[in-house]
Amino acid sequence: MRKQFLFLILLLFTLKAVADDPQKQKVDSILSKAREFESKGEFLRQIETALKALDLSDAYNYDEGIARAHFSAANALVNVGVFKEGIKHLENIEGTKYFREKTLMQSEVHRVKGRAYIKLRLYQQAIREFHLQLARIKDLTGEEQKISYLYTYGNLSTVFDQTQQPDSMQKYINLQLDILRNFDEKTVAAMLVGVYDDLGQLYVKKGELAKAQQYLDKSLSLVKKYKIPEFYNTYTYLGNLEEKKGNLQKAMFFFEKSLANKREVNNRDAVRNSYRSLADFYKNTSLDKVKADEYELAFSRLNDSLERENRQVIDIVLSQILKSKDQESATKVSKSVRIAIISFVLLALAITVLVWRSRRNRRILGQKEEALLETETINKELTEQIGENKFNNLIELAKSNNPEFLTLFTELYPQFIQALKSLDSNLRSTELEFCAMAFLNFSTKNIAEYTFVTIRAVQIRKNRLRKKFEIPSDADFNNWMRELADTSAQTQVPD
After folding, report:
1. Nearest to residue 223, comparing CAs of 198, 191, 200?
2. How far apart are CA 414 and CA 153, in angstroms?
3. 206 with 166: CB under 8 angstroms?
4. CB 244 within 8 A of CB 209
5. pLDDT tens for residues 155-189?
6. For 416-425, which contacts have Cβ atoms below 8 Å and span 24 or more sequence positions?
7. Statement: the pTM of the whole predicted model exceeds 0.90
């Protein structure tokens, strides 16, 4: 599904007039090659090609080339996990005239930032970027708008899947389905399979197995009808469904079929995931201990191999970035200074070449180590930067009666929410929001104002909650909520 979306987004950037200037044509040709590498998943070659296009665009003062080269580099860096450098490239795009004039580029910058935040598990920031993208998409038209909506809804459904918010996830899956129904079925068959798979798996998690079967059967029908080569998710979710029904033999059949397809399309990351899940499946169901051990060993070997390859790719990427920075610095040196340096090097070459090489190698090694350390700590840095604004955002969401208030409150004060649910597991979201406002020490008047009800209505709700939680009549409602959170925190502290 995601690959199909990627192809369509790349297509949008391809549908543009070729520049008349031969120098610009050269840059456009290089960027087309970078797009080819991206579509094949060859992100290292994409980065190298994008940086080459960026150097030429800077030399030619080609504004569009600068913006698109930065975007291509940023997209590849996010895909390989070098987030800070990727975000820097996105910020550089915002200074170009092309970015200010092209709504699609503005939308795509928000999309890639959102993807970076998803991978960093900074979900609130990711949601913010995707909502900013939706605001820009409104100004697009035609195919550009439809494809951009598909991509954004898909990313939002991923966020809500990872944060275990099935209702919000279902909302954005259905929005994707509404758009896809406007296309010819054959053209978007692979994307329809992805949406039906997502709905099927969602209903499996909800326990609505008849609906899950319905959507997964639709997916399987499209796979067979249009001979779609990549269908392992469909079989995985069918396996999950049969396991939920208690049909372990049928579940095993589908899981094995899924693994076979992953091998056919050479998706090694997906194969690794299958090894892990199959080892757990055979172990937990006691179907076949020998197979459980075989898949456990296969997982360990492939996982070690992929992690080594990922480290090598990141190391090469960082070296390429350092090389690019060195080249950028070199261009700023004046011609006279360069001549003086060259003359000095020639005169002193006989006695300094060994020392120079040694120092240079140590400097590059130090830079690489520093860059690696910087990459490893990016999650912590970005989390701290965003965390400073979260409480203020929470208050603003409460004041505007925004439905995302409870989501952010749960993230900031999970122990309080858990304590409330331990008292009554059937609490409605409106009751949780009301208690959250009391926890934040909002007055009765404030709560009435922010939720658009009367003060009398707020007092009635407080009385109902007093009865439900058995809060003494002489106890301050807000203080009781704060003390509940403190008591919960103390009981969770280890001895």
Report:
1. 191
2. 27
3. yes
4. yes
5. 999 999 999 999 999 999 999 999 999 899 999 99
6. 416/481, 416/484, 416/485, 416/488, 418/488, 419/484, 419/485, 419/487, 419/488, 420/484, 422/488, 423/468, 423/469, 424/468, 424/469
7. no
